Amino acid sequence: MLDRLNQAMEYVEEHLDGTVDAAELARIATTSEYHFRRLFSALAGMPLSEYLRRRRLTLAGAEVLAGERTLLDIAVRHGYGSGEAFARAFRAMHGVGPGEARRAGADAVLVSQPRMSFRLVVEGSSSMEYRIVERPAFRVVGRRARVPLVHEGVNPAMAAFIRGLGRETVERIAALSELEPKGVVAVTEFFSDSREEGVPLDYYHAVVTAAGTEAPEDLDVREVPAGTWAVFANTGPYPLALQEMWRDVFTQWIPSNPYEFRLGPEILRVDVRPDGEEADAELWIPVLRVAQ
Hints:
The protein has 292 residues and is an alpha+beta fold. Helices cover 38% and strands 25% of the residues. The protein has helices at residues 2-14, 22-28, 33-44, 48-66, 71-77, 83-94, 98-104, 156-165, 167-174, 240-256, and strands at residues 129-135, 138-148, 185-190, 200-210, 220-224, 227-237, 259-261, 266-272, 278-289.
């Protein structure tokens, strides 16, 4: 799959001065557009749209300094409908306007977005343990909050939300647990293809129950349809190990296996050791098997 991703990146470079069709990129990578956008975001650390913007503005920066085209010609060439829109975008990336950069010439300091390619890095520390589970429809029942994504360390907004629930509410939620993964779990659901730091997501402090189980009226319910789940497990420093597991699923396991993401919540069960230093974690990711 990495070869196909790199072919898609060649297409990007060939079409930066025109329209880059995300559907065509997905076709080259032999996957769905949704999966391509999400996989790109996970691997690149930014959405596809942001990468395209930054690559175009990188090329535009070189053209501005070269002085061979007018600033308006450069703006239109890179997809901007007016010089003002181009100037705003240019300044947002480079920290200086295109006119100022041209006047500064060789003294101008601009930002460059390198051309991106993908390769599999074998770090050799350990293999990933996983299983594939076919699960009928079920319910996520608990309390929900909108929080920002945090890649490393404790998520302050999430921690504050959990503290605010109170012991009685958490115990009442825990008592409803029926299905794997058992006990109180962290359920996250994204509303964009981006996995950038700070992107908003829905977080449920909840349990998994059968589809027909009644839920108390004061709790939030997420109906989850039947589907396939890839289930990963690891043990290590908390919360670093589980965050690394999440990263490795998206950057190593998905590109190396015949599965792609499908829409749905991601479920994490964590058992923190008494010392609070280490934890056992199990991560459920909704996936779809793809033909090879």
